[in-house]
Amino acid sequence: MSPLPIVDRATPTQAANCTFARGCGDEPGPELPADVADLVRDHPCYSEEAHHHFARMHVAVAPACNIQCHYCNRKYDCANESRPGVVSERLTPEDAIRKVLVVAAEVPELSVVGIAGPGDALANAAATYATLEGIRRAAPDLTLCLSTNGLALPEHVERLAALGVRHVTVTVNMIDPEVGERIYPWIVRDGRKVLGREASRILSERQLEGIARLAEKRVLVKVNSVVIPGVNEAHLPDVVRAVRKAGAFLVNLVPLISAPEHGTHYGMAGQRGPSAEELERVQGSCELDSRVMRHCRQCRADAVGRLGEDRFEAFTLAKLPPGPARDARVLRAERRGAVGRARELAARERQAALLRVADVPPALAARVAVATKGGGLVDQHFGHAREFLVYDVGHAGARLVGRRAVDRYCTGGDGDDDALTVALRALADCDAVLVAKVGHCPKGQLAAAGIEPATDQAFQPIEAAALAWFESFAARVARGEVAPRRARPPAEGAAPLDAARAEVA
Ligand code: CLF
Ligand code: SF4
């Protein structure tokens, strides 16, 4: 069985921002086999570009867990909190299937249904399979997805693959038990509680075995690794190398979320999460060996909607209609068609924009923040944004660096000064912020902070907009009107803006 292609970013001849032939003039990277490209194209977690267009939902049918992580407390329940393990109600498989059909009728961009807790999907195997099998029967066009700590994974590979599950996430935080004993106090294996280093040794062995067996079945394995400063951040490149060797397709380095009020061991002990800069540094150190996801929103176990959207409260059991949901497969197919057309337009505009910046010196780069409501456009008012997507832009394209969460500035017509302070801090390393509109006051304060508020690219596709702004920035640099703050060509170890876009470009 040939392994899935994984980008080797250490290979100097590889055009690092062009993993797939995008027709942009860069050297093409290894192309994905057609079946793999199909699996990636509409999955909002496996494709950065797809996350602008498609939604996922999680069904919380898996309450129990077979290990303990120092960052986890599933008793915590808060509707305002978005992070793994948090859930407002747990579901039976029957309720989960009913809910999926209602959401799939109301949210035609839904493409993926995942089981991501609140405990471990495979520690609740009966409920997990009953749910997956029910969804497979009722809505076969939806992609099934699963997240697990990997302890029970090896014995489930056959059944998952037979069921048509082609996307599995395994959380791997270490391969060294000495590191592991600072993350996992215990596991339960064969009905026996195992403590300390031995627990981590078994867990790591099982995770790598499970990943390798999934890869043999051509299941796309995404590895999530929690970045825990002072515990595993220096060890993570070794983790990434090991999971890549085992066959992982994609790596997702997520920041530890830790606060005393969560009641976790780490929260109580004062273990902090990484800063945005630290996270970016760790992601960069791991990018040499694998494709790195940068658009994760660390979803709740009952999340509904596009990444970054929280629509779970609209679909609680109490709000579901009593009767069976209508079959909305046709609506979902129409939505896919509309997305296809939007992608073609965005690809054309990107090509045109790339041609216009082709002569910009390769060493010139800039960083821009983008406000978007989804759909891949610069279409949100500065004051309405709860997050900004941050891109590094250069003559070879734009590359997502990450997201910056902020508080909404505009509250009922008034501007919130504290929120503006938070936003200015979150965007401090950006040269510009691309928005649909921005009010007078924030405009002035952004400019004073050296962040250009830009509205000329409003309602354009994000990458074309970022390149259009960069074109004008480069011209101003050439005229000596502005001084560049950074020389960071995206081609240096850059991830592709999107894996699947090549397929539509
Ligand atoms: Fe859910 Fe995970 Fe499947 Fe996505 S989430 S089970 S792969 S459908 Fe996505 Fe959410 Fe990040 Fe997970 S943004 S936490 S990576
Ligand atoms: Fe919590 Fe997941 Fe860790 Fe289990 S594997 S303890 S559910 S974070």
What key phrases describe this protein's structure?
single chain, 505 residues, alpha/beta, 8-stranded mixed β-sheet, 5-stranded mixed β-sheet, disordered C terminus, binds FE(8)-S(7) cluster, binds iron/sulfur cluster
Biggest sheet strand line-up: 10-9-8-5-4-3-1-11
Low-confidence stretches: 1-29, 76-81, 488-505
SS-derived structural category: alpha/beta
Integer-rounded radius of gyration: 22 Å
CA-to-CA gap between the ends?
Answer: 29 Å
Classify the helix fraction into a percent range.
25-40%
- Work out the strand percent: 15-25%
Q: Kindly state the mean pLDDT as a whole number?
A: 85
Tell me the major beta sheet.
8 strands, mixed
What would the principal axes of the Cα set say about the shape?
globular
* Hetero compounds: FE(8)-S(7) cluster, iron/sulfur cluster
Helices, by number, come to: 14
The counted number of beta strands is 18
Structure summarized in a few sentences:
With 505 residues, this protein is α/β, with parallel strands linked by helices.
Secondary structure layout:
Layout: H1 34-41, E1 55-58, E2 67-68, H2 93-106, E3 110-115, H3 125-138, E4 143-148, H4 157-162, E5 167-171, H5 177-180, E6 186-189, E7 192-195, H6 196-216, E8 220-227, H7 236-246, E9 250-255, H8 265-269, H9 276-286, E10 292-293, E11 304-306, H10 329-356, E12 366-370, E13 387-394, E14 397-405, E15 410-411, E16 414-415, H11 417-426, E17 432-434, H12 440-448, E18 452-454, H13 462-478, H14 501-504
Parallel strand pairs: 1-3, 3-4, 4-5, 5-8, 8-9, 9-10, 12-17, 17-18
Antiparallel strand pairs: 1-11, 2-6, 6-7, 12-13, 13-14, 15-16
Helix pairs in contact: 2-3, 6-7, 10-13
The chain binds FE(8)-S(7) cluster (CLF) and iron/sulfur cluster.
FE(8)-S(7) cluster binds next to strand 1, strand 3, strand 4 and strand 5.
